[in-house]
Design goal:
It is a single chain. By secondary structure, the chain is mostly beta strands. A four-stranded antiparallel β-sheet has the order 1-2-3-4, with no helix packed on it. It has a three-stranded antiparallel β-sheet with strand order 5-6-7, with no helix packed on it. It is elongated and about 45 Å long. About 8% of the residues have low confidence.
């Protein structure tokens, strides 16, 4: 069985949105074959006004949205980095129902 890359702790789903989309951070990596991989992270605003993480991966001029985990409330990613590709970390914050900010860390492998 082949293990496909995915953000830790998430299930695949397709996202549709038509409101605000904001990218806050970007990271670049050159693979051993010379391919440049890019990650961009941020958030999008759902029609019900909640904020959800937005992660995009690009190479050779093509960008794709990569599904990332979210809590039921507001989640924002601010920065992304490679540690040992394809291992990628993204950080930001989550706001719980009481309005308290919590650190949000996501790992892609």
């Amino acid at each position: 069985m082949t293990r496909l890359p995915a953000w830790s702790g998430q299930s695949a789903q397709r996202r549709h949105w038509q409101n605000d989309n904001i990218l806050n951070g970007i990271a670049a990596n050159v693979t051993s074959t010379g391919v440049i991989e890019l990650w961009a992270v941020g958030y999008y605003k759902k029609p019900n006004a909640t904020l959800k993480t937005l992660t995009e991966m690009g190479n050779s001029g093509a960008w794709v949205i990569v599904v990332s985990p979210n809590t039921p409330v507001n989640d924002v990613l601010n920065s992304v980095t490679y540690t040992a590709p394809p291992d990628t970390w993204a950080v930001g914050y989550s706001v719980n129902a009481a309005g308290n900010d919590r650190t949000l860390t996501e790992f892609y492998c």
